[in-house]
Design brief:
CATH superfamily: B-lactam Antibiotic, Isopenicillin N Synthase, Chain
Strand content: 15-25%
CATH architecture: Sandwich
Distance between the termini: 34 Å
Shape: globular
Strand order of the largest sheet: 1-2-12-9-14-7-6-3
CATH topology: Jelly Rolls
CATH class: Mainly Beta
Bound molecules: L-homoarginine, 2-oxoglutaric acid, fe (ii) ion
Number of helices: 10
Helix content: 25-40%
Number of domains: 1
């Protein structure tokens, strides 16, 4: 990559430990503000999540994806609600092209009375937890709990970074509609010549608030677009998460914070595994440009949007090749 730009590294320990003072928090908030304005991506350290569980999730993901196809197909999204479960290579689609990854998606469970369940919409079904490897469900459940706490802590930092009270976002997050994905990437070079295969994962933005990416040590795969239009690598940094700002924060901040385009191109002999955790608002959160942000730019760049509706629209378009001649 030609660009010399490097993603900033932000230590959020003042928000993850009890003993911290306000000055230390404000200093972190300042760094976050800059990172979210400039590129919308940063490395996050000081998160207090044990390295062992981060490594364990990657290892379990690798093991699951190396099970025979028949075993993996037991959990196919098509056996549930077309969203929760296993997607084979090429089943996911971004911008009319097949993604060359396989993945397992888990969402916050919904009660049978939830509109998604009542209308039998995507995401309205139940999570499909693999029986193999045997610890899979327990480890990922524990991981999810860690990530929910971290998401809450980083959202406090985001609130301060916008000049708001630390707990400003709480009422939008107390029923966080989390999404946890385990993604496996074989060598993209082996897919060349196959019909409509694009990238390992096509360029896109994420849908909610914050994505926390836990990735194995494969380099050169995840690429992030800078404001100059260059693509830079977001290579793994031991012990850190790669964090990015997603669509709802872009709306809330009236475009001050960037929901940055990113994509994956994995051309290498190794089989790459990542575990992105999507920390999201409540399903029915109404998101619209904040007063504090309209004071900086009074032109409203977004209409109010219900997070769940945005999510459903995005997810519904993720697994079907739409013929662009008809669009
Ligand atoms: N929940 C998230 N962000 N998952 C990954 C999405 C990958 C891009 C997606 N096919 C799209 O077209 O948006
Ligand atoms: O696996 C990665 O490196 C990125 C995944 C991603 O962007 C996504 O699933 O939304
Ligand atoms: Fe993404």
């Amino acid at each position: 990559m030609p660009s010399k730009f490097k993603l900033p590294i932000i230590d959020v320990s003042p928000f993850t430990t009890d003993s911290s003072d306000r000055a230390a928090k404000l200093e972190v908030a300042k760094q976050i503000h800059k990172a979210c304005r400039d590129v919308g991506f940063f490395y996050l350290t000081g998160h207090n999540i044990p390295q062992e569980i981060m490594d364990k999730t990657l290892k379990l993901g690798y093991e699951f994806f190396h099970l025979p196809d028949e075993e993996k197909f037991n959990y196919s999204i098509t056996k549930q609600d077309n969203a929760r479960g296993y997607q084979r290579l090429g089943e996911g689609v971004t911008k009319y092209q097949k993604d060359w990854n396989e993945a397992l998606d888990f969402y916050k469970p919904v009660p049978r009375t939830h509109p998604l369940a009542l209308k039998k919409l995507p995401i309205g079904g139940e999570n499909q937890w693999p029986e193999k490897p045997s610890e899979f469900r327990a480890v990922f459940n524990e991981y999810k709990d860690y990530m929910l706490r971290l998401g809450d802590q980083v959202m406090r930092a985001i609130a301060l970074s916008l000049g708001l009270e630390e707990n400003f976002f709480n009422k939008f997050l107390d029923d966080c509609f989390w999404v946890m994905r385990i993604s496996g990437y074989p060598d993209l070079r082996n897919a060349s010549g196959k019909d409509r295969v694009g990238f390992s994962l096509g360029e896109h933005t994420d849908y909610g608030l914050l994505t926390f990416l836990n990735q194995d040590d494969t380099k050169g795969a995840l690429q992030v677009q800078t404001s100059d239009g260059d693509w830079i690598n977001a290579d793994p940094l031991q012990g850190a998460f790669v964090v990015n700002i997603c669509d709802m924060l872009n709306v809330w901040t009236n475009n001050i914070y960037k929901s940055t385009l990113h994509r994956v191109v994995h051309k290498g002999d190794s089989y790459r595994v990542t575990v992105p955790f999507f920390y999201e608002p409540n399903y029915d959160a109404k998101v619209e440009p904040l007063e504090a942000c309209l004071q900086i730019d009074p032109v409203k760049h977004h209409e109010p949007i219900i997070f769940g509706e945005h999510l459903l629209k995005k997810v519904s378009g993720n697994f079907e090749i739409i013929d662009h001649n008809f669009l």
